[in-house]
């Protein structure tokens, strides 16, 4: 196990900047996840960490070794890095035991046998030594691929969309199992995924990449609740960015009514800002003046996720327990119940950003709710 540090890493391929100034740290035994839209540079960054991609700027430290810089690069096989890829191809002509111990060239037969047995136990497949890959399910094959990468006790494990060929249910259970396994083995790992739920289930630290930049590197909780960039707010979880205008009294005139928060005080009157509204920031309240019409309903197990039109231009999302079915087309009342405010200047993505303390809403300016028409 090892610490991983990236300092201002940049990779250019055929004169195109693919990774731009990425810095991140994973402490010993931590699991990190990189999220981001297709083509944003996640795989290229993993390849750079593994030593398959030269750097145009910055440096990469694995354990105590500055393994990559612009002027020098430790060869991939000397980095102690294990890798698991989407197409995890096991060797079809080797049995499970030989597949797992493939990378343990220097170990004795007894050591190999003991390590194979230990790993098979940990991945829930004890006694599978003599099976062949074609006798295993997709999920079992992926567990074996993981055991193969872990067998030589790498300093660092890199996983590139390791579960993407599996179905959603299996992915979720496997993600939790993999977290447990990595923690038992004390391995530092960096994983690339498209799947936020997977990242949230697995990661101690996670980040969103966009066009080669790492926009934020944080705990999954902070990424969701305290996005520091408008694109992170948009990418992570469900939510809507609503626009409002700061008034002379340092309030925010918004589609949810007048909003007050100390974070608005330094912002000049007339400034247009956007703020983040998550589905759990609004609760259904029949007596509220804030009214909207249900446009659609999506079943999410314990909850339904509703899209509500507040006006012809403004739609928001809200959650409600799924045993209280609300029909599409119905008008409902909503009460803002924000825990904190995430606000961005509309003309650029950065500050003011996150502000602690919940905003106060005044709905006085909104019309009185009308009794339902029969
Ligand atoms: N060898 C290469 N030659 C030219 N362009 C490349 C090369 N490798 C990657 N790229 C480009 O770099 C960009 C980032 O690719 P990368 O595979 O790192 O993205 P990604 O975030 O992993 O995408 P995905 O989620 O779809 O796997 C893409 O636009 C890709 O076309």
TrEMBL record:
Keywords recorded for this protein, A-Z: ATP-binding, Cell membrane, Ion transport, Iron, Iron transport, Membrane, Nucleotide-binding, Transport
Gene Ontology MF: a single term: ATP hydrolysis activity
Biological processes, Gene Ontology terms: quaternary ammonium group transport
Gene3D superfamilies found in the cross-reference section: P-loop containing nucleotide triphosphate hydrolases
Record-level GO cellular component terms: ATP-binding cassette (ABC) transporter complex
SUPFAM superfamilies the UniProt entry points to: MOP-like (SSF50331), P-loop containing nucleoside triphosphate hydrolases (SSF52540)
Lineage: Bacteria, Pseudomonadati, Pseudomonadota, Gammaproteobacteria, Alteromonadales
SMART domains: AAA
Name this polypeptide is given: Iron ABC transporter ATP-binding protein
Record-linked Pfam families: ABC_tran (PF00005), TOBE_2 (PF08402)
Species assigned in the record: Pseudidiomarina taiwanensis
Start and end residues of each ABC transporter domain: 4-236
